[in-house]
Design goal:
The chain folds into two domains: 5-244 and 407-469, FAD/NAD(P)-binding domain, CATH 3.50.50.60; 249-402, Flavocytochrome C3, Chain A, domain 1. By secondary structure, it is of the alpha/beta class. It is elongated. α2 (23-34) runs parallel beside α13 (449-469). The longest helix has 21 residues, at 449-469. The protein has a six-stranded mixed sheet with strand order 5-2-1-9-19-18, covered by helices on one side. Helices cover 28% and strands 21% of the residues. Residues 15-439 form the FAD-dependent oxidoreductase 2 FAD-binding domain. Keywords: FAD, Flavoprotein, Oxidoreductase.
Length: 470
């Protein structure tokens, strides 16, 4: 494909070309530049929307063997590993998982060097002060710090450039085809890093994977993760890993926008009450485990319900125990009135609540531990934090499936090199972030782990690309 000669010449000739503009891409670009490479970063979004899904993040899960200024106690390798085995159900590459965990211990000092600031460790009901380092100002502040560092170091950043094809010759990437506005052009470098996300913003691809139910999904993050280069790598013979229906999927407020609802659209009170479907029936244990370990299963659970919608119901005892929501709860003085306002079958919801209340066993409620408050005698038990719904007013939130990122991706080795179906691997092509997260996340999720994968593999990919370009 022939592109505009002037643009091709202007943007070609760099040592390393990074495709993407979020955490993984920025970590790759910064690391490659630190290694002495000249670096070009192509971000498909306008500058105001730069950063991809990373803008909506808050923290990074990291191993540490002793307390730090931002983390309490210790979070050793084996505990981290077992936590991830549990949430993934063993659907992970154990070697790469341990690789990420071990490398995570080095992340926060490096991040600080590039301007990222952290807030003191959190207490309360999030249970994350020991396992996760929180960014001061959230993901947007992190992204801005990295872009500022990139500018200072001399990384060239071009916005609104969509890479639409990868041209390979002799097992190596020869050049990329890109588009800005109505102009298509070729761009080449000595080595390349793909850190351009999954396909969660591609509504047609979601429907291809899920069927018509995907029409009821909401996208928590950027609208720019269309999976264009993932599809191209599939066509080019890359070895692919993951199930297209698996991803980081969360129950979010059904009133959230189609794109970029972010963390603010999440509803975190599930473990403090009950969840019913549109038929007014419970369908899963709301108290299975601590919320940071289990919140990401609820997107898939809601996706499996009639109409892909559910409703979280709490009473006044839960108020103040979970992250405030952007959209106000539907409120009523009786369960029947609340069901009517939520347009649910009133008699069935009342029956569900009455049966649940009768099944709650005596116990000592403590949301900071897996307490002994449970139900007994129900078809779907609640194993922890079960309290009667008996203190008015009552509150309800409509829930939809919110997709954060998808797990279908390219296979990589521990050096972030992309593996091909024929067993070969290109010596100048690397991947980081969501486009390869499925190597480690076959299913499930734990808070902050996507940022861990992106940070660790972004740095690995940047180092590898710089060496390949030397």
């Amino acid at each position: 494909m022939k592109g505009d000669t002037n643009v091709t010449q202007e943007l070609s000739g760099y040592d390393v070309l990074v495709v993407g503009g979020g955490n993984a891409a920025l970590c790759a670009a910064l690391t490659a530049r630190e290694a002495g490479a000249s670096v070009l970063l192509l971000e498909s979004a306008p500058i105001a929307w730069r950063g991809g899904n990373s803008c909506h993040t808050r923290n990074l899960r990291c191993m540490h063997t002793a307390p730090t200024d931002v983390l309490t106690d210790a979070y050793p390798e084996e505990e981290f590993y077992q936590d991830m085995l549990k949430v993934t159900g063993g659907q992970t590459n154990p070697h790469l998982l341990r690789h990420v965990i071990r490398q995570s211990e080095t992340c926060t000092p490096w991040m600080r060097k590039h301007g990222v600031r952290f807030q003191p460790s959190l207490g309360g009901t999030l249970h994350l002060g020991r396992t996760n380092a929180f960014f001061l100002g959230g993901g947007k502040a992190l992204v801005n710090a990295y872009y500022k560092s990139a500018q200072r170091l001399g990384v060239r950043v071009e916005y609104e450039v969509e890479v639409i094809d990868i041209v390979m010759e002799g097992g190596r990437v020869d050049h990329l085809v890109a588009r800005r506005g109505g102009q298509t052009f070729n761009v080449s470098a000595r080595a390349y890093v793909l850190a351009c996300g999954g396909f969660e913003s591609n509504l047609e691809w979601l429907e291809e994977a899920w069927g018509p139910v995907a029409r009821n999904f909401l996208i928590r993050g950027t609208r720019f993760n269309q999976g264009v280069l993932l599809r191209k790598m599939m066509e080019r013979g890359a070895s692919i890993i993951g199930d297209p229906t698996q991803g980081h999927m969360v129950a979010i407020d059904a009133r959230a926008p189609l794109y970029d609802g972010g963390i603010a659209s999440r509803v975190d009170c599930v473990s403090l009450g009950i969840v019913v479907n549109r038929e007014g029936k419970r369908f899963y244990d709301e108290g299975e485990d601590f919320w940071p370990k289990r919140y990401a299963i609820w997107g898939r659970l809601v996706a499996g319900q009639p109409g892909q919608i559910a409703y979280s119901i709490i009473d006044s005892k839960a108020v103040g125990r979970f992250m405030p929501t952007v959209y106000p709860a539907v409120q009523a003085d009786t369960i029947a009135e609340l069901a009517a306002k939520l347009e649910l079958p009133v008699e069935q919801v009342q029956k569900t609540v009455d049966e649940y209340n009768a099944a709650v066993q005596p116990g000592t409620f403590d949301h900071s531990v897996q307490d002994d408050c449970r139900t007994a005698g129900l078809e779907v038990e609640k194993t922890h934090w079960a309290q009667r719904l008996d203190r008015k007013p009552f509150y309800g939130y409509p829930l939809r499936t919110g997709i954060t990122f998808t797990y279908l991706g390219v296979k990589v080795d521990e050096n972030a090199r992309i593996l091909m179906e024929d067993g070969s691997m290109s010596d100048n092509l690397f991947a980081a972030g969501e486009i390869m997260a499925g190597n480690i996340l076959g299913k499930g999720y734990a808070a902050g782990f996507g940022m861990t994968i992106g940070t660790v593999f972004g740095r690995i990919a940047g180092t590898g690309a710089a060496h390949a370009a030397a």
